[in-house]
Give the backbone structure.
Amino acid sequence: MSPNLRIAFRFLTAKKRAMLMSLSCTILGVGLFIVTQATTSGFEEFFIKTILGSNGAILVEDQMQDTMRSFAASGTSDFLITHREGVKYIEGVEEPKRIISALTQFSNVSGTSAVLRGNVVIRSAFKNESAQVYGIDVDEHLKVSDLGHQIVLGNIADFRESPTGALVGKVLADRLELAVGNTFLLDSRGQVRRYRVSAIFETGVRDIDKLRLYVHMPEARSLLKKATGVTFVQVNIFDKDRAPQDSARMQDVLKHSAQSWQEREKSWLEAFHALSMSSAITVSVFTLIAGLAMFNTLAMIVLEKTKDIAILRSMGYERRDITQIFLWQAAVVLAIGAIAGAIVGLVGTFAVSKIPLPINGIFKTETFQVSWNGWHYVEAVLTAAIMVMAASIIPARRAARLEPGDIVRGTAQ
């Protein structure tokens, strides 16, 4: 142990209560920072997982066509100049096989599913409801969604084997009082067909579960009178964070609108980000208090240890040595507080993850969702380090400026 560090420990013992207060605030600041960030990030990650499992990472939709405008050059009608004026969108994907073939060439694409969507009225023995029918190839769709894991009643195998089977959202099934095995009618502009409930699914997103139902693609084509083309192609990718770049490339290559999940859910992602920043600022108050406590404690030590500082300077200690002694005191408190705070954050995060919290709206969960991310610990320690060490610099520099002669004469400032 260096002499400067040994002296710092001796000075620390002179103000035990004040140092314990600063240490306690540091521990609370680090621990609460970790817990709040873990819960906020946990809910955000769970929301993203739910969205990706329901709507995929990228949707390739309407065909894009450039609109051109011609005008006469130099006031004559003999020579026309044509230039691009804008983009026209043609609803749907008319050649899904060609689009899917092109999508498979993208290295980040892990799966594709063509989907035909239409508005219908679903009629049960009890009431009628507006809904959206999704025509899919079930095996292809399972590659781009979590539909297989979202089944809460019935099973996907029954749907696969039943040409007139249907998968119905749980909220929609409850409103219509439908159970597995019940039949119902779908009405699309006077075209009425009967289907049977093969299974009931629940994504946790209420807007999906109260509107959506799945049928086989041939049935959807017959019901919606759409012999060719689809509404969109749902795309799954290996690296979800690359969705904006991949969607931009797809749009340029395919000449179809391609929308990433970040663009679709921009408002919710911004809300989660704002909540994360707000909670971080709030709990950082404890770290700020730790910094102020450290400032006050070191300032008092400087006043009480002026004679000791004079002796050290007389023995040959330089200003930088005195500065190091006081900064070492802050560093020791910070190191203990960071380690203990990280442990508190770890235990607190685990405890919070076991707290019951039934939620069903933008996603479905029964407990707090937490994220075990090492960066939360790094951010918490860095925040504490900046505040505590910054608050320690002024007292340390003040102590270093003391001169032995001024202390003896009683004129030290």
User: Anything to note?
Assistant: Residues 3-53+268-409 form one domain. The radius of gyration is 33 Å.
